[in-house]
């Protein structure tokens, strides 16, 4: 058998047989690595600070280089994968991620560690959209794809929540560089497996790749995320270091959108945003992360600084959230078919808001049962919302644009997370600082320093000592808990706003009847291609016309409309994915 036929058989099996679930396992392990690396370093910061002695600026870049670079390059590599092959980009991302992990683990200077973290961000930006776009290609049946996306989003939650636990264990028993070495055995396994098992898929490949547009998008997202992160760190909004990146990033993104609208072969088809389901799904992802990521950061501070838990104990306390997210992902496909995207996203937001309001009962003392119940509801509600939003967004995009759509979803996730830290961090600071004023025996400069954070307030109180130090310590604890309660109310309001936004989503999960013609499989056996729809996203014949009947998309006449059967198996391209060509 020729190489072409072997590759075609592998792709055909992945797209239509049991091996697609093996492909899902490989993709989930890939995503797990990226999600772990986003949070595993947090608990290692004190240890590496003591070892490498970085400046405050260098330490900030050690922590932020990975998410900044990763977020800025998602659109670039997502759309590049549509052109040159998603599997090819993914395998290169594996290699870069492994090399960068070794360099980071063995770094002896802050500069080397910053460079390694940036390279990790490049690898992560290659891996993240590729996993989701390959998943879109190998699961043409929307019912099965919903199950796969549920597993995919659950793995992302597992990785993010497991990072601090695993990192805490490794730092306590080894050294800070071990948090990077855990990537090496997984990469040694996943790289040959990915090369052997993963199918190659591309978009239409029409026209040249817009290199200038890709660089504009990368620079625009980098500026926007950097500015948002500076706001979250408490920098004044009108300074050059904060407003400059924000304004430049916003201007570049506006120019990028205008450029894509004018081009005959854009990187991202902006007509996707004319579909209410796609735009609403992206907005729900942003709003969900906006409400909760900053809150999660504050909750970690509460567990460590108010309840006095160690990093490892803090990670263990957050495990119920992870298990609940796993349960939501496992049952998401069934729930989506039963109640539809609108109710699933809306009620997910409502459940998450209820969990946030329940956590308002947190106080100065540990209440393990309350925290466990709150985290379970929080994890289940958030995962339900994100799962349905991702599924709706991806199902609205044609296979040929899967990389660009996945990049939009991941970029929305990153922007929402950054804005959440900035917004909720500002709310927390505004509610926390006034509680430290007017303390007897505490100098004004000590009060000002203590207002920066609870950790710094503890240090100032220890230096003061005596009754003044004790009063500052106690006042800071009360002010932090009060600020946490205010932040929880703001977060709940944002989540309820998301529930209202979800009313624009379709009421039911629509799937077209399976009418895929037999010659597609025959063509795959001969040419090594798993059918035009499975690889390029192109439909031929009457299926392409019938595929256009969806919410928010131009419909053909009634005679050409495919029958809608909720929960039924669909053809290689789901209903609503066909779009007019430039």
TrEMBL record:
<keyword id="KW-1003">Cell membrane</keyword>
<feature type="transmembrane region" description="Helical">
    <location>
        <begin position="89"/>
        <end position="108"/>
    </location>
</feature>
<dbReference type="InterPro" id="IPR020846">
    <property type="entry name" value="MFS_dom"/>
</dbReference>
<dbReference type="GO" id="GO:0005886">
    <property type="term" value="C:plasma membrane"/>
</dbReference>
<dbReference type="GO" id="GO:0022857">
    <property type="term" value="F:transmembrane transporter activity"/>
</dbReference>
<dbReference type="GO" id="GO:0046677">
    <property type="term" value="P:response to antibiotic"/>
</dbReference>
<feature type="transmembrane region" description="Helical">
    <location>
        <begin position="369"/>
        <end position="390"/>
    </location>
</feature>
<feature type="transmembrane region" description="Helical">
    <location>
        <begin position="209"/>
        <end position="226"/>
    </location>
</feature>
<dbReference type="InterPro" id="IPR011701">
    <property type="entry name" value="MFS"/>
</dbReference>
<feature type="transmembrane region" description="Helical">
    <location>
        <begin position="114"/>
        <end position="135"/>
    </location>
</feature>
<keyword id="KW-0812">Transmembrane</keyword>
<feature type="transmembrane region" description="Helical">
    <location>
        <begin position="277"/>
        <end position="298"/>
    </location>
</feature>
<dbReference type="InterPro" id="IPR036259">
    <property type="entry name" value="MFS_trans_sf"/>
</dbReference>
<dbReference type="Pfam" id="PF07690">
    <property type="entry name" value="MFS_1"/>
</dbReference>
<keyword id="KW-0046">Antibiotic resistance</keyword>
<feature type="transmembrane region" description="Helical">
    <location>
        <begin position="238"/>
        <end position="257"/>
    </location>
</feature>
<keyword id="KW-0813">Transport</keyword>
<protein>
    <submittedName>
        <fullName>Transporter</fullName>
    </submittedName>
</protein>
<feature type="transmembrane region" description="Helical">
    <location>
        <begin position="175"/>
        <end position="197"/>
    </location>
</feature>
<feature type="transmembrane region" description="Helical">
    <location>
        <begin position="147"/>
        <end position="169"/>
    </location>
</feature>
<feature type="domain" description="Major facilitator superfamily (MFS) profile">
    <location>
        <begin position="23"/>
        <end position="510"/>
    </location>
</feature>
<feature type="transmembrane region" description="Helical">
    <location>
        <begin position="344"/>
        <end position="363"/>
    </location>
</feature>
<feature type="transmembrane region" description="Helical">
    <location>
        <begin position="318"/>
        <end position="337"/>
    </location>
</feature>
<keyword id="KW-0472">Membrane</keyword>
<keyword id="KW-1133">Transmembrane helix</keyword>
<feature type="region of interest" description="Disordered">
    <location>
        <begin position="532"/>
        <end position="582"/>
    </location>
</feature>
<feature type="transmembrane region" description="Helical">
    <location>
        <begin position="484"/>
        <end position="503"/>
    </location>
</feature>
<feature type="transmembrane region" description="Helical">
    <location>
        <begin position="21"/>
        <end position="45"/>
    </location>
</feature>
<feature type="transmembrane region" description="Helical">
    <location>
        <begin position="57"/>
        <end position="77"/>
    </location>
</feature>
